[in-house]
Amino acid sequence: PLDKDELGRATWSFLHTMAAYFPDNATKVQQKEMSAFMKIFAKYYPCEHCAKDFQVSIKESPPATVGREEFSLWLCKMHNEVNRKLGKPEFDCGRVDERWRDGWED
Ligand code: FAD
Prior knowledge:
Blueprint: H1 4-20, H2 28-44, H3 48-60, H4 68-86, H5 96-102
Helix pairs in contact: 1-4, 1-5, 2-3
């Protein structure tokens, strides 16, 4: 059966890693494509109520896709919104590269 937590961890790992390797300065086409990808992703994420809420969040704050930094920060904020909803601690978005690109110190 589908494990919502396992799916969530795997998905966040994919999304944050994708953001961490997005071009520093995305072309207009890349910006459009990544925005479209996130909107379509939000429609088909296989957890119905998660997908519904995420679509609302994206409508309220559309994907920031001008480049890697902005996109990583936007995604961190989206993830924190879910964290808040679930009563999980907020992640320090200043450490997003450390977590998803450069690797933690320890
Ligand atoms: P996760 O939240 O899965 O995080 C994985 C790792 O990411 C953490 O260990 C941490 O190192 C890092 N991290 C944490 N916060 C951030 C951040 N803000 N920015 C960058 N890195 C971070 N579950 C539900 O029960 N209800 C929902 O409505 C729901 N909606 C979801 C919507 C989406 C789009 C996704 C992808 C998942 C959703 N989930 C939902 C799953 C939920 O977010 C968690 O993945 C799941 O509860 C497992 O949590 P976790 O504590 O293992 O860490």
